[in-house]
Write a structure and sequence with these properties.
It is a single chain. 40% of the residues are buried. The chain starts with 17 loop residues before the first strand and ends in a 15-residue tail after the last helix. The chain has helices at residues 47-60, 79-92, 105-110, 113-121, 136-142, 148-160, 179-193, 210-216, 225-238, 265-277; strands at 18-21, 23-24, 43-44, 66-70, 98-102, 124-132, 164-171, 197-202, 244-247, 258-261. The chain has a single domain (12-284), classed as Alpha-Beta Barrel (TIM Barrel), CATH 3.20.20.70. The longest helix has 15 residues, at 179-193. It has 292 residues and is an alpha/beta fold. Helix 2 (79-92) links the parallel strand 4 and strand 5 (98-102). The chain has an 8-stranded mixed sheet.
Length: 292
């Protein structure tokens, strides 16, 4: 059987995927807002453990088409190790169409373009990358470990290897003081990357993180629906994308939007303008439905 260690996290779009914990925890684990792996010590699992889990899953669900490699930073593992996992997955699941994982900027720094190309040829074709912000002041505040120029460089290195990127921007991360700069600079960085997928989340203090401690000291701006919608509008207005799927349907968002940019940009901006012009009747997500 598959024995998951600790709380398991995966992107919303991986809801119907087989999840394998190739690594436990996150190799970086310094982001001030993230609590997902604070209780885990990072390690790479033994290959024979994963082999048994793949065999167990194949016997019960031979039609698996998508696999997500958890935990927070599987890409940091050696290329030979990941290639061995991909080889076993292809052998076990004849209909396998895609393998994906989270990718930190630090793991993208470590992997060469040639290594990522080899892994993509083996099936690892989608990375989830938390950009969070394009403003260097915000990135430093969040302790992402890279500035915006480095974020663009490593993201485009992955795309040059033929890997698709699903990127995330963290609304509210700059607070009120940096809200508009955060939105504009995030749009600039996303434009320079041109990822296949772009989504937004709303920064939310979670117990056990430095952000939570800041919040307890009254140092975190809790932006309301109108302020977050204005920030999102500024972000969308600045996007110049050729063919990216856009979503703001994560449970933390105040407005659920979806479209393809640039085709649906005008319609998305119209939805945001209606919400800003008449907030009393805007389809804001009720507080009780929001979460992480």
């Amino acid at each position: 059987m598959i024995a998951y260690e600790g709380t398991l996290y995966r992107p919303p779009s991986e809801a119907d995927s087989l999840i394998l914990q190739a690594t436990i925890g996150c190799s970086y684990n310094e982001c001030t807002f993230c609590a997902m792996y604070r209780d885990k010590r990072f390690r790479i699992r033994k290959l024979d453990e994963l082999e048994r889990e793949i065999e167990w899953a194949a016997a019960r669900a031979p039609g698996v088409r998508k696999v997500f490699l958890a935990d927070g930073d599987a890409l940091i593992a050696k290329t030979s190790y990941l290639e061995a996992i991909l080889e076993r997955l292809r052998a076990a699941f004849p209909d396998l169409a895609r393998v994906s994982c989270y990718a930190s900027p630090q793991s993208l720094q470590v992997r060469t373009e040639a290594e990522m190309e080899r892994l993509r040829e083996g099936g690892l074709s989608l990375y989830y990358l938390g950009i969070e912000s394009g403003d260097d002041r915000v990135l430093e505040k969040l302790a992402k470990g890279v500035d915006s120029a480095e974020m663009v460089r490593v993201a485009n290195k992955a795309q040059d290897a033929g890997v698709k990127l699903s990127t995330m921007i963290l609304l509210g991360a700059g607070g009120r003081a940096l809200s508009q700069d955060h939105a504009r600079e995030s749009a600039r960085v996303v434009n320079e990357i041109q990822p296949r997928f772009v989504s937004t989340l709303v920064m939310t203090p979670v117990k056990g993180t430095p952000l939570w401690d800041e919040d307890q000291r009254g140092e975190v701006d809790h932006m309301d629906e109108i302020e977050l919608t204005a920030e999102l509008r500024e972000f969308v207005a600045g996007l110049e994308l050729r063919a990216s799927v856009f979503r703001s349907n994560h449970a933390s968002n105040r407005l659920a939007l979806a479209g393809t940019l640039s085709k649906d940009k005008r319609a998305l901006l119209a939805q945001l303008d209606r919400a800003l012009d008449d907030p009393a009747h805007a389809p804001f997500v009720p507080r009780w439905l929001r979460g992480l």
